[in-house]
Design goal:
The protein is mostly beta strands. It has a 6-stranded antiparallel sheet, with no helix packed on it. The chain has a single domain, classed as 10 Kd Chaperonin, Protein Cpn10, Chain O (Roll). It is globular.
């Protein structure tokens, strides 16, 4: 990986979204969800020593326009600020 985030930024790769169903078994499209969140895996972390995430962590982030898409070869990544990380999945 040739990309090294700086400061409190984290480079992540989106994980495949799980299909969401209603209680009646109807598959819900993304447009039906109130807040769009993305599950991702941390690929690289910034230079700030106080970051709470590490490489390999699965996290949940807000799918906002402030995330920067980075393309390295054929892979797509997101560069996000640590403050946009909503949770670490344990």
């Amino acid at each position: 990986m040739a990309i090294k985030p700086l400061g409190k930024r984290v480079l992540v790769k989106k994980l495949d979204p799980e299909e969401k169903k209603s209680a009646g078994g109807i598959v819900l499209p993304d447009s039906a969800k109130s807040e769009k969140v993305v599950r991702a895996e941390v690929v690289a972390v910034g230079t700030d020593e106080k970051l709470e995430v590490k490489v390999g962590d699965q996290i949940i982030i807000s799918d906002s326009f402030s995330n920067t898409e980075v393309i390295e070869g054929e892979e797509k990544y997101l560069l996000v600020k640590e403050s946009e990380i909503l949770a670490i999945v344990e």
